[in-house]
Amino acid sequence: MSRFTSIRLALPLLVCVLAPCPSMAQQSPDLSTNVDQAEDLWNFEDEDDDLWNFEDDEEDIETWGNLLQDQAPDLLLFAGFASLTMVSFLRKSVWLKYITLVAAVSYMGFQKSQLISVTNIYSLLTGNMPVFRYSMAWYLFFGFTVVTTVLWGRLYCGRVCAFGALTQLMDRVVPPQFRVEVPLWLEERAGKIKYGLLAATLLYFLATADIPAYRYVEPFWMFTRRGSTAMWTGLAVLLIATVFVRNLYCRFLCPVGAALGLLSKLTVFRIKRWSECSTCKLCEKTCEWGAIRGPEIVMTECVRCDDCERLYADTTKCPHWLILARTKLRQARAALSSS
Known about the structure:
Blueprint: H1 3-18, H2 31-41, H3 64-91, H4 94-111, H5 118-126, H6 136-152, H7 155-160, H8 162-173, H9 184-190, H10 193-208, H11 229-244, H12 248-252, H13 255-263, H14 282-286, E1 292-293, E2 296-297, H15 307-313, H16 319-338
Antiparallel strand pairs: 1-2
C-alpha cells in the first residue's frame, strides 16, 4: 500500500474525529458532507501522483568515465610534467633541466606534496596500496618512477623528487668556496648509511605500525608546511649542512634513494664509457654525486644528472674525441708526406 493510499484512507477518519460535537456547537455540521469533501480532496486519477512534486533522490552511479573525468586534471598535469622531464633528459639540455627542477619544487613539492616516500615502499611490501580507481594519478606517478629507474637509473632522484631538485638549485646559488669535497674513502662509507636507514625504518614500521615516524627520517613533509618545532629545527640544520656538502641528504641519508639505487642495478640503458675513461679523471671531478670512481660509474649512486654525458659529447673537452682528432690529423699528414 502506497503512502498516499494510506493517507487517503486515514483522512476521513481524522475528519470524523475533529468534527465538532452537536452539544458543543450551535449547528451540527453534516458529517457525511465532511467525509465527502475529504474524499474529493484526495480523489486523484493516479494514486501514485506526488502531491508535493518532490524530486526523487537519485543515487549517482560510479563509472570509470566519471572517475576519469574527476581525476583528469591531475593526470594531465603529471603527464605534462613527466613529458618535460623526459625531454630535458633525452636532449641533455641544461636550461631545460633547470626548468624541470623548478617545476619539480613548485608542482610536485609545494602544490601536490607528492613524492615517493619510505611509507610507499612499506605499503608495497605489505600489499596495502591505494585503491587504483581513486588514485590513478598516483599510480601514474609511481609507475613512471619505477619504469624510468629500470630503464635509465635514478632519474627520479635527479629530476622528479622535489627535495632533490631543491638541493640542486641551492647548489647553483651557493658560492663554490663554501663547498667541502668529501674524500673518496668517506664517500664510499657514508653512502651506505641510507641503506641502513631504509632497513631500520622498514623494520620499525613492521614492528610498530607507527607510520607517522617517517617524518623523522624524511624531510619531505616540509612541502606541506606543517611540522613541529623540533622537525623545523632539524630541517634547518640539514639545509645548512647541504650548503657545505652538496646534495647531502640524497647522497648519504635518503632511504628512498637507497631503494631506487637497489632497483637501478637492473638499469637497461647505462651511460656509455670510452676506453680512455680508465685514465681520464675529468668526469670524476665533475660529478656532484660521487658516482664516478675511476672507470666505473656506480649506478646505485648515479642520478643521471647529464653532466658527464654532456662532457662525453663535447669534442673539445673529452679526451676520447681529442685522441681521435689527433689520430686523424697524423694520418692525414702521413698521407700527404707519402704522396
